[in-house]
Amino acid sequence: MAGVPNKVGTCVSEGGYPAGTLNWHSDGKPLIPDGKGVSVEEETRRHPKTGLFTLQSELTVIPAQGGAPHPTFSCSFSPGLPRRRALHTAPIQLTVWGSLEGQGLGTVALALGILGGLGIAALLIGAIMWRRQRHRREERKAPENQEEEEERAELNQSVEPEAAESSAGGP
Questions:
Q1: CB-based contact 3:45 (threshold 8 Å)
Q2: DSSP 8-state assignment for residue 64
Q3: In this predicted model, what pLDDT tens digit does every residue of 83-131 receive, in sequence order?
Q4: DSSP states of 88-103
Q5: Is residue 143 predicted with pLDDT exceeding 50?
Q6: Distance (Å, rounded) from C-alpha 65 to C-alpha 60?
Q7: Within 56-98, where are the H helices?
Q8: Cis bond leading into 18, ω under 30°?
Q9: What are the angstrom distances between the C-alpha of 27 and each of 39, 49, 147?
Q10: Residues in contact with 77: Cβ distance below 8 Å, sequence separation at least 6, in sequence order
Q11: Domain-by-domain residue ranges, the chain?
């Protein structure tokens, strides 16, 4: 976020001798801490038994409004020995959001999230109500079918005795 301190990362070198140095780079150029937009906290520890050094460097930046939208940072370790080349980390690319743009996008995202949640809730409620109505219709249909079946059974019973009487009276 532009205008807000952002921790970019921590660079560590363990078990070196001599201690060497850690340096930060922005878009491939050496980054010099100015205490305003760029700050680096460094710590050097020496192991009491082995005498080897551990270096740690933490980079924090405050991106400027209207600055580079995708700054790239990296760290390098210089061993401190003659004819030894520096080792470079893979670059870290950030996306800088403008303070007003970031808030606007956050508000839009929040509104869309709320609307999406309400839409899902409406669908669930609609599905529950539809199932209840369908269940009630089935309950209504069941007694009607039972009555129809009972009426048919009564009709069949009344037809059977007549058939029995007509066949009994025939010979």
A1: no
A2: P
A3: 888 888 988 888 888 754 445 455 555 555 555 555 565 556 666 766 7
A4: EPPPEE--PPPHHHHH
A5: yes
A6: 16
A7: none
A8: yes
A9: 16, 39, 85
A10: 11, 13, 16, 20, 21, 22, 55, 86, 87
A11: 6-97, 100-161
Contacts 24+ apart (CB under 8 A), 46-54: 46/19, 47/15, 50/15, 51/17, 52/14, 52/15, 52/16, 52/17, 53/13, 53/15, 53/16, 53/17, 53/18, 53/19, 53/20, 54/12, 54/13, 54/14, 54/15, 54/16
Token pair of 27 as six digits: 């878009």
Contact indicator for 72, 93 with CB cutoff of 8 Å: yes
Separation CA 28–CA 39 (nearest Å): 17
- Token pair 């140095």 is found at 21
Residue pair 94/68 in contact by the 8 Å Cβ criterion = no
In single-letter form, the type of residue at position 69 comes to P
For domain 6-97, give the fold: Immunoglobulin-like (2.60.40)
DSSP, res 48: T
71 contacts 27 by C-beta, under 8 angstroms: yes
pTM: 0.55
Contact 12, 56 (CB under 8 A): yes
